[in-house]
Design goal:
Largest sheet of chain B: 6 strands, mixed
Strand order of the largest sheet of chain B: 6-7-8-3-9-10
Helix content of chain A: over 70%
Number of strands of chain A: 4
Helix content of chain B: 25-40%
Shape of chain A: elongated
Largest interface: A-B, 39 and 41 residues
Order of helices and strands of chain A: EEHEHEHHHHHHHHHH
CATH topology of the largest domain in chain B: Rossmann fold
CATH class of the largest domain in chain B: Alpha Beta
Distance between the termini of chain B: 39 Å
Structural class of chain A: alpha/beta
Radius of gyration of chain A: 35 Å
Largest sheet of chain A: 4 strands, mixed
Order of helices and strands of chain B: EEEHEEHEHHHEHEHEEHH
Strand order of the largest sheet of chain A: 1-2-3-4
Oligomer: heterodimer
Number of helices of chain A: 12
Number of strands of chain B: 10
Number of domains of chain A: 2
Strand content of chain B: 25-35%
């Protein structure tokens, strides 16, 4: 909403009374500054070498008006005129003096950097971020080793709280989503299988795809979005409010205090959540198979032991701890990297989620390559 | 624009009562703040200084009573009126409240961009001008609030408060957290600007040095109401025990 005062009428701010004599009139205030600036821009200096500006007609003057007047007089002087200003009231004169004593120095604008140099800077920056991340991972590994020898220092209570918020409270959303994924797989696969009269193989399709791929991946993506982001926001806020520094000054290790309980909690919770996701995904697939393909629950369950080998189940579950480490490391690292402002906390949280999901999918792809290589 | 000259009372409080969450904060507060004066609002912690300030800034509505700011009754004001009124008021927050995601210059330019139609060049020049007025170097403009010292942040906050040439300036503990030299320099700066910009200033403060240096009048809150209100010397000489302990306690200035 812009100011309404601009709508008010006022006489032209600068009025030429005689050759070389100018009269300022009306209100020279912020409300009219845009119009006055416009008029002054268009002003054509008269040929006379001496210009006198008479300011007794000014009704109001504020810093914006005083600056315009000062700038106008300076412009005249630069054009080789001898500019004199008279008739300012005492109040306006002190304001004018204040403004002319502090002419705005041009703040240095950011220097131009050519695109190639910027690309190079970006590369160096990303490279050093990767190194720092590696060093943070190493630091956490060392802290975990230290912790094994002195388990009484471990924050069991924090770990339990993390298990509740990252695990227990995530049950409804993870359950619902994997159930629906099971339904979708069963529907899409069933339509194809039916054409070959191989409907019963829907059990193999649902059970293998859920346990090997979908359950661990969906769980990891949801945990990265729910929990990884919360970890980043918590640690980043503590970083901005100097709480991390306080922990250090009190002689404690922030990694030990903040990262290890989270790491332990997710290492426990993620395999359990994956198992739970396996179960609900297969349940969803089974219900859909019953409704669409006339594969009864009994037939489905009878086929299940043959379809779902222990190997497939373990392959899926074994991904969970790896994803847990990725989510905790990325989330906490991004938190520790925060600095300065509230805006930075938000930016860190966003990049934490994006990076964690990205790395989870990369890791999943690597798992597939390795498993196909060793032939399981 | 500056009707304040014809309106001797810039702020008028009549029978203001405030209850917050079942606790009576203010009971029957009456006072009038005159144009072109510096009024100090003092009182111990928890006496409702900040609450009263928030009520005058329209961030909070008193339970009953009337508050008039720049001649407008706050209880009866509409959105448009509130918007126009807020333009005429500047506020320096206790922790400066600079937007942490913007540079100092962008912070100062923010009110111009939101409230005026000025050209980008003019906005830039006026923001730099305000930066100079509060005694900050041009390089500071490109920095972020987290890169500045507490004293510089206060000055930058003051520059933003003064951006639109307000008639009325509220200061919430302007010198808190500053060393005595910076505090004294900030007091001098505020006084100088108050004179040349013809400001009416209401400041909440605990700093006796600032009060003696700047205040024309003092309003003291205590026991849920206004304990003393008047000229500085007059209030300082009041026999009320709260006032005596504030002005003549162990921590009072030697010249007090």
């Amino acid at each position: 909403m812009k100011d309404q005062a601009d709508q008010r009428k006022q006489p032209p701010p600068l009025h030429s009374t005689a050759e070389g004599h100018l009269l300022c009139q009306g209100e020279w205030t912020l409300a009219f500054a845009a119009a006055i600036e416009n008029d002054l821009e268009k002003f054509v200096w008269p040929p006379a070498p001496a210009i006198s500006i008479e300011a007794s007609g000014l009704k109001q003057l504020d810093t914006a008006g005083a600056w315009l007047l000062f700038r106008f007089a300076e412009k005249g002087r630069r054009a080789g005129k001898e500019v004199t200003l008279s008739g300012l009231s005492a109040k306006h004169a002190s304001l004018f003096e204040l403004v002319s004593a502090h002419p705005p120095a041009q703040a240095a604008s950011p220097a131009y950097i050519n695109p190639l140099a910027r690309l190079g800077m970006r590369a160096v920056e990303e490279g050093s971020t990767a190194l720092q991340f590696l060093s943070f991972t190493g630091e956490t590994a060392l802290a975990s080793v230290r912790m094994i020898s002195s388990a009484q220092r471990f924050r069991w209570r924090d770990m339990a709280a993390n298990i509740e918020s990252a695990g227990f409270q995530a049950l409804p959303i993870i359950g619902l989503l994997t159930f629906l994924i099971g339904v979708v797989i069963s529907y899409q696969g069933g339509v194809q299988l039916q054409q070959y009269g191989a409907s019963i193989y829907i059990t193999d399709l649902v059970a293998l795809s859920m346990t090997r791929e979908f359950a661990p991946l969906i769980t990891a993506i949801l945990v990265a979005g729910r929990t990884g982001s919360a970890y980043t926001a918590q640690i980043a806020t503590m970083q901005v409010t100097e709480e991390i520094d306080a922990i250090r000054v009190l002689g404690l290790d922030p990694v030990e205090l903040l990262v290890l309980p989270k790491l332990a909690a997710l290492l426990i919770v993620m395999p359990l959540l994956t198992l739970y996701a396996d179960f609900l995904g297969i349940l969803g697939g089974m219900l859909m198979a019953g409704l669409m393909l006339d594969v009864s629950s009994t037939a489905f369950l009878q086929r299940l032991p043959a379809a779902l080998t222990m190997e497939s189940y373990l392959i899926g579950i074994s991904k969970a701890p790896v994803f847990a480490v990725i989510i905790v490391m990325v989330g906490c690292y991004q938190g520790f990297m925060a600095k300065g402002s509230a805006e930075n906390v938000g930016a860190r949280t966003t990049s934490s989620v994006v990076l964690a999901i990205f790395l989870v999918i990369i890791a999943d792809a690597l798992f597939s390559i390795v498993f196909s290589w060793i032939g399981i | 624009m500056k009707e304040s000259a014809s309106h001797p009372n810039v702020i008028e409080l009549r029978r203001v009562h405030t209850r917050l969450g079942g606790t009576q904060i203010h009971e029957d507060i009456n006072m009038a703040i005159r144009a072109n004066e510096v009024t100090a609002l003092v009182g111990g912690s928890g006496t409702g200084k900040s609450t009263l300030l928030r009520a005058m800034l329209m961030l909070l509505r008193p339970t009953s009573g009337s508050i008039k700011v720049l001649g407008q009754e706050l209880a009866a004001i509409d959105d448009q009126g509130l918007h126009l009124l807020r333009r005429r008021i500047g506020m320096l927050f206790q922790y400066s409240a600079l937007f942490s995601g913007m540079t100092i210059l962008e912070n100062i330019a923010f009110p111009f961009k939101e409230h005026t139609d000025l050209s980008p060049k003019m906005i830039r020049e006026l923001s730099c001008l305000k930066l100079g007025l509060v005694g900050l170097a041009a390089e500071v403009g490109a920095k972020y609030p987290s890169e500045l010292s507490g004293g510089m942040r206060k000055r930058a906050g003051l520059a933003r408060a003064l951006a639109l040439d307000p008639e009325l300036l509220f200061l919430d503990e302007p010198t808190s957290g500053l060393d005595p030299v910076s505090a004294s320099a900030l007091d001098d700066l505020i006084l100088e600007l108050q004179h040349s910009l013809a400001l009416t200033v209401l400041m909440v403060t605990h700093d006796l040095d600032s009060i003696w240096k700047m205040a024309d009048r003092v309003a003291m809150l205590g026991r849920g109401t206004l304990v003393a209100f008047g000229g500085l010397k007059e209030v300082a000489a009041s026999p009320d025990p709260l006032v005596r302990s504030f002005f003549h306690g162990d921590r009072g200035p030697k010249n007090g």
